[in-house]
Design the sequence.
């Protein structure tokens, strides 16, 4: 039972309407996009940095955990309150505060939806480059916490490459700034450490991001291949030719089937895999590079390659890709999405291993991923109502991650470690690596009050003691 004087104090700060604590109101806040779930004790919707500072100070007095939350689209259990506490939902803080067109900067609140920023600045000839496939709903605060990527991060880099400064509320309730809008901050790069810290080092309350000019020309190619092997080889060939497309996305046969069931954007049903290859830049550059892409794909005997002839056609191709995960619902009631990275040259080998794992567990695995970055997203399709299924799927997810690590890859390309992958951290980090990372986290949040139980192996508090020799099996 949550403490009634805590509720009273929280209501005094944000108003009665913005504190939820009745069990039925809390249900929706137990989830993000992963398979983990746990109920918070209370949910609070602050409106300002000052509200958050006061809430954090109250949490300290009542010895409560604080779990920041954006839109809850995370795929590693990051915003799930595994040990209860106060869930701090930042969606009311959704103002674009100012745009500096001359310097191409935006000052935004953390609850601004990613795509809304690009829409807002489009008339100024600008856009915000990091574009997670969830960009119609995920927030810039969540993107910062996860250091999110997206299809166009192949050319433009991930979130950390576009964040210049951040106001944060610390674990003791102080409001401080990290970074500087002109990038030249003397001293240590604390902002670099904060981006990707998964809500454990502070709460992002204002953010200055870099905007880019909308390119003069964009061409989107749809290339279909008979096999996923051929499509993977095409990815390596494009990159090794020296071209850097703005995006290279791959979808396998199962994903194409799902997309065509739901989005119907014209992907060919005869293909074993399709690639979306996008180029952007000046008119001359893009025309020249488009010819090169056509030549490479044709020389690899692709079944077909076409270029979107209009903005509508281009949007339709991207609607298919960005709607692919949702469309998998037409094939099975649930999917478990694995986020691993492999060197691009290891794509065919790793995809074969994934296919063998699929046969072994007798469950289909659909692949839809940022191929240009070697960032795989195998989605294991299942029905969680079937007894024993969740364990089977999680086990297979672990095998896939091990396969990525075995070929020189890593545990996550963009979805973060969260709760889901924290025990896998031992696969790529030594005890000393983890201790050092923990010391950095602890210099920001020594009491482990912010988003406990994420990223570091162990429970909510034991990781604060450090020394991984104690916990490693
Ligand atoms: C269909 C689909 C497609 C996706 N595609 C991509 C993709 O292409 N690339 C990609 O990178 N991800 C992708 N994701 C994952 C997810 O959308 C991203 O991780 C996104 O950044 C999460 O944002 P959110 O606002 O939903 O954050 P949440 O899920 O609410 O939270 C994520 C983490 O951020 C922390 N957090 C949230 N706000 C703050 C804040 N203001 N200060 C400090 N910590 C905070 C939370 O505590 C949590 O740890 C996809 C998800 C879905 C469902």
Sequence:
């Amino acid at each position: 039972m949550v403490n009634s004087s805590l509720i009273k104090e929280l209501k005094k700060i944000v108003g009665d309407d913005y504190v939820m604590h009745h069990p039925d109101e809390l249900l929706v806040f137990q989830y993000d996009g992963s398979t983990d779930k746990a109920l918070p004790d209370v949910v609070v919707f602050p409106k300002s940095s000052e509200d958050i500072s006061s809430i954090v100070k109250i949490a300290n007095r009542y010895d409560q955990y604080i779990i920041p939350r954006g839109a809850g689209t995370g795929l590693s259990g990051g915003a799930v309150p595994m040990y209860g506490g106060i869930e701090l939902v930042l969606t009311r803080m959704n103002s674009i505060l100012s745009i500096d067109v001359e310097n191409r900067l935006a000052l935004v609140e953390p609850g601004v939806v990613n795509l809304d920023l690009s829409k807002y600045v489009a008339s100024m000839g600008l856009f915000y480059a990091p574009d997670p496939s969830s960009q119609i709903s995920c927030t810039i605060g969540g993107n910062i916490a996860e250091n999110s990527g997206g299809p166009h991060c192949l050319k433009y880099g991930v979130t950390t490459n576009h964040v210049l400064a951040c106001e944060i509320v610390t674990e003791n309730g102080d409001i401080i700034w990290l970074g500087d809008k002109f990038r030249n901050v003397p001293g240590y790069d604390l902002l670099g450490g904060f981006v990707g810290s998964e809500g454990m080092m502070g709460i992002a309350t204002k953010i200055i991001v870099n905007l880019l000019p909308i390119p003069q020309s964009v061409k989107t190619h749809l290339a279909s291949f008979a096999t996923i092997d051929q499509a993977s080889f095409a990815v390596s060939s494009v990159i090794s030719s020296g071209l850097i497309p703005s995006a290279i996305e791959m979808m396998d046969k199962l994903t194409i089937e799902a997309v065509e069931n739901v989005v119907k954007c014209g992907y060919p049903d005869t293909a074993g895999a399709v690639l979306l290859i996008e180029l952007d830049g000046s008119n001359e550059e893009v025309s020249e590079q488009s010819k090169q892409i056509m030549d490479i794909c044709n020389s690899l005997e692709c079944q077909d390659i076409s270029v979107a002839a209009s903005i509508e056609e281009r949007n339709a191709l991207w609607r298919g890709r960005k709607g692919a995960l949702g469309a998998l619902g037409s094939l099975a009631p649930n999917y478990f999405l694995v986020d691993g990275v492999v060197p691009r040259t290891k794509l065919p080998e790793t995809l074969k291993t994934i296919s063998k794992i699929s046969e072994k567990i007798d469950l289909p695995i659909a692949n839809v991923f940022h191929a240009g970055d070697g960032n795989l997203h195998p989605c294991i399709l299942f029905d969680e109502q079937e007894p024993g299924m969740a364990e089977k799927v999680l086990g297979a997810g672990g095998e896939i991650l091990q396969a990525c690590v075995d070929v020189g890859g890593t545990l996550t390309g963009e979805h973060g470690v969260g709760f889901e992958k924290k025990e896998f951290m031992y696969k790529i980090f030594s005890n000393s690596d983890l201790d050092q990372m923990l010391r950095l986290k602890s210099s920001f949040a020594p009491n482990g009050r912010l988003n406990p139980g994420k990223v570091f192996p162990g429970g909510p508090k034991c990781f604060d003691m450090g020394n991984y020799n104690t916990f490693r099996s």
